């Protein structure tokens, strides 16, 4: 009889597929009125000899049950943990294994890429790349560039002033309206000779439309040494534009222009050919650095001369890629960015 009971019990233990089901089996056999418990209860009515032999038999049965129970319990506990882990499992290699779920990857912004191209071309021509400051003072942005406070040219560039205690020596703080203040900082820091470009963001307090944005990118150039003239500028710019647009037919021409920080000042145009049409496009301001500007930078205008230029990288990007609305460039619109 105990063997038969043990066999049944062991089958029930094996059949239990969860801890809860296993606990029910335990109650059924070892609970207060469980089948093994009931069997133990019968011992008290037996004779001492019978008690001993029956007792041993039932104890063996109980031990067999407990052993099988513990083994099964461990197995089910582990299975439950495994199932939980399985549910939480995240396969980080999945994207590589399954090409249908390829990783999304970003790309370099077209403006950043063009800036690197410009830097590369000028570096190959012996220019160094310098950084200016986006937050500047009235002194560096205007005064030192030969634009005194009463000068009407201050109105040519509407300025974002910072709400910040005035620095009495250098005037109000502002967001630079052009990269030209970098000229002064570089002359102060490195003296002459100098052959640098300063790319960077500039800011204007302006209403925006398809050709104006309140933030755009410029590239400033400065070449200072002895015996430097505008012929060098023409040669360098011709070379730069041909390499940048990958078009040997590009030509440049100078027209007189006015900027307080150069004398003479010029506007540079580029001959742009599209199909069998060609037209002159205004691409940058330039000129011979004004003696007052050289002095502000700590240089002796009797000894050193040089030229400077400034162009809009944003405008170059629009020309190169045929972008017709400047606002797209900082829009972060993926439909636009994915084209590059
Ligand atoms: N700073 C001028 C602007 O933002 C551009 C410019 C003109 C820069 C002539 C120069 C220059 O260095 O010589 O409109």
Structure description:
With 340 residues, this protein is of the alpha+beta class. It has two domains: 2-95; 110-337, Bira Bifunctional Protein, Domain 2 (BirA Bifunctional Protein, domain 2), CATH 3.30.930.10. Helix content is 43%, strand content 20%. The chain has helices at 2-15, 19-30, 35-41, 48-88, 94-97, 110-124, 138-141, 153-156, 181-190, 230-245, 291-296, 313-321, 334-337, and strands spanning 128-129, 135-137, 173-175, 194-203, 215-225, 251-256, 262-274, 277-289, 305-312. The protein has a seven-stranded mixed beta sheet with strand order 1-4-5-9-8-7-6. The termini are far apart. 3,4-dihydroxyphenylalanine binds next to strand 8 and strand 9.
Secondary structure: elements and pairs:
Elements: H1 2-15, H2 19-30, H3 35-41, H4 48-88, H5 94-97, H6 110-124, E1 128-129, E2 135-137, H7 138-141, H8 153-156, E3 173-175, H9 181-190, E4 194-203, E5 215-225, H10 230-245, E6 251-256, E7 262-274, E8 277-289, H11 291-296, E9 305-312, H12 313-321, H13 334-337
Parallel strand pairs: 1-4
Antiparallel strand pairs: 2-3, 4-5, 5-9, 6-7, 7-8, 8-9
Helix pairs in contact: 1-2, 1-4, 2-4
The structure holds 3,4-dihydroxyphenylalanine.
3,4-dihydroxyphenylalanine is lined by residues 178, 180, 220, 259, 262, 285-287, 308-310.
